[in-house]
Write a structure and sequence with these properties.
This is MAIP1 protein. By secondary structure, the protein is an alpha+beta fold. It has four helices and five strands, in the order ααααβββββ. The protein has a single domain, classed as Nuclear Transport Factor 2, Chain: A.
Length: about 180
């Protein structure tokens, strides 16, 4: 990320700690976001959308129901990310905002790069074949693809609101479009 974006994010983390959650830590948040990404991506891959109701906003869940039903099996398999297969994670945009009713919200976009062995066609644009691993002999090769996903997490910090983060945006470019 650019130095300006990095400084802006750090400023927002300071504001979150000062005004909303004195124990907020981006490192702890990132660990939780990775776990949530892994769980949600596997449930999407398995078409177990009813199990996502507590994790994902109702609007996102409705869109996912429409998109998942149209996906070919290879693309659906490529959505799943084991937590150990997440190669890189970074924060994207961080926002603090108030709605018209005075409710307070924090939103953090997380970007994930993960390896997946789904049998994707060679002509899938936007994904990258990272490497082939040879196990045993030259005839046994396993292809891995480096894929990206963006998940936005939102939490309401209004007094009396549940202290849960909810996923308000899910993007798997070239797979879930």
């Amino acid at each position: 990320t650019s130095p300006i974006a990095w400084l802006r994010s750090r400023f927002y983390y300071l504001l979150i700690r000062l005004y909303f959650d004195h124990e907020f830590s981006i490192e702890e948040f990132t660990r939780g976001a990775k776990q949530a990404f892994s769980v949600v991506s596997k449930l999407l891959s398995q078409r177990k959308l009813d199990l996502l109701e507590e994790l994902v906003s109702a609007e996102v869940l409705q869109v996912l129901k429409e998109k998942i039903s149209l996906l070919p099996d290879s693309h659906r398999d490529a959505l799943a990310a084991d937590i150990d297969a997440i190669m890189y994670t970074t924060e994207g945009d961080v926002r603090i905002y108030y709605d018209d009713d005075g409710r307070k919200f924090v939103s953090i976009l997380m970007c994930f790069w993960y390896l997946n062995g789904a049998n994707l066609p060679d002509d899938v644009p936007g994904e990258a074949k990272v490497f082939q691993i040879v196990f045993g002999d030259e005839n046994t090769k396993e292809k891995k693809h480096l894929l990206t996903a963006n998940y936005e997490f939102q939490r309401e910090f209004t007094e009396g609101a549940k202290p849960d983060w909810t996923i308000t945006r899910i993007e798997h470019p070239r797979l879930l479009e």
